Amino acid sequence: MLKLTYTDMGLHLERLAQSPEELVARRAILALRMNQNLHLEPSRAAFLLPADLPELPMLTAAAQRDKGDAIALCPVCEDYVEVSLRGMWIAPEVDAHEGTFIAVMSDRLEFLLHKLWQVSQTQVSFLL
Fold first, then answer.
1. Is there a contact between 6 and 97 (Cβ–Cβ < 8 Å)?
2. pTM, entire model
3. Where does the pLDDT of residue 124 fall: very low under 50, low under 70, confident under 90, or very high at 90 and above?
4. Fewer CB near the last or first residue (10 Å), C or N of the chain?
């Protein structure tokens, strides 16, 4: 499972071994104990990857072989490709801009996507 955390500082993507049900259950228990609201909604999330990543063709091929619409890739310009994922949005409010998005897809897709995101973050840190 991929977990995307959206905060005011940006996006963080991680790959987890636990099931989505387990993550949601733990998050619900936390919200209950903290006396907070919890909103769950089927949704889509998107982020950009640099178009010049060497492994991007492998991700594209794996996404095309995957049955279903868990992931879609779309070039948005010469420099970037938009990655769109189908999954579940978890946030304290309906209109929250910060929260957690979880997506489940094949192990291969999760691995490649996580690897490419890590590489893209390394490239960004060298530019700053």
1. yes
2. 0.89
3. low
4. C
Q: What are phi and psi of 56, to 5 degrees?
A: -60, -40
Tokens matching residue 77: 């310009």
SS3 30: helix
**H/E element, 83:** strand 80-91
How far apart are alpha carbons 42 and 104 in whole angstroms? 12
- Residue whose token pair is 């072989």: 65
Residue pair 50/80 in contact by the 8 Å Cβ criterion: yes
**Pairwise CA distance, residues 76 & 41, whole Å:** 26
Across the strands, what pairs with 87?
Answer: 43
Range in 41-50, 52-61, 62-71, 92-101 with the lowest mean pLDDT = 62-71
Report the alpha-carbon distance of residue 39 to residue 24 in Å, rounded: 11
If 0-12 CB within 10 Å is exposed, 13-18 middle and 19+ buried, where does residue 54 land?
Answer: exposed
pLDDT single digits (tens) 69-113: 889 999 999 999 999 999 999 999 988 999 999 999 999 999 999
